[in-house]
Amino acid sequence: MTPQTASDLSRKICLLAPVIPVLVIDDAGTAAALARALIRGGLPALEVTLRTPAALEAIREMARVPGGAVGAGTLLTPADVEAAKAAGATFGVSPGATDRVLDACEANDLPLLPGAATSSEVMRLLERGYTVQKFFPAEANGGVPALRAIGAPIPQVKFCPTGGVSLKNAPDYLALGNTLCVGGSWVAPAHLVTAGDWDAITALAAEAAALPR
Predict the structure, then answer these.
(1) What is the CATH classification number for the domain harbouring 33?
(2) H-helix or E-strand containing 20?
(3) Rounded Cα gap, residues 127 and 7, in angstroms
């Protein structure tokens, strides 16, 4: 898969909804119900971070739920990429970008949202062919003003800002011309997942899906 093909597919995923839920799953037994709740609320693109032992099994379970596009976040190594692909992930997300991770995603036909925090990192990824990127950590790196400033000289690149994004500030990011969607964890808080309150999560997802962009 070429970087431009990866970016085209990443763009399609980002345009599915204004928000991509960023999910840290401790119990894979909740994964399918969580996916159904989020998809029912209008958020079909789901990022499961590889931060827990249950993550890969959660991806397998979510990949079986109709109507969703399940991705793997926190891809740090080629082994992560291969494991995510084998588990059924249809896209990947990384906090940054290294040549080894980029090479692995291209070799495994896994579209990637590579992370960038500075203009130099954005330019390097653009030089390689990645026109859709993750701006991370968004709030810690200057938030909306920083992303707006990056967009002025580099309008070719579109972003999914993640990190400190909430229901309160998501509209400000989505109003930027270089933002396709945002990533956030507020739509699936741990206490609601633990309680199995899927209706409440669906309501949060619907609220997020209704955000203008």
Answers:
(1) 3.20.20.70
(2) strand 19-23
(3) 13
Counting the structural domains of the chain, the total is 1
Element (H, E) at 42: none
* Residue numbers of the chain with a pLDDT score lower than 70: none
Catalytic choice (12, 47, 85, 121): 47
The pTM (predicted TM-score) of the whole model is 0.96
Model confidence over 59-73: pLDDT tens digits? Answer: 999 999 999 999 999
Given 61, 106, 134, 158, the catalytic residue: 134
For residues 43 and 203, what is the distance between their CA atoms, to the nearest angstrom?
Answer: 11
Residue 52: which of 30, 27, 88, 15 has the closest Cα? Answer: 27
Q: What is the pLDDT of residues 172-183, one digit of tens each?
A: 999 999 999 999
**Which positions ≥6 away from 142 have C-beta within 8 Å?**
149
Would residue 47 show up in a list of annotated catalytic residues for this protein?
Answer: yes
- Active-site residue, 139 included: no
Range of the domain at 61: 3-209
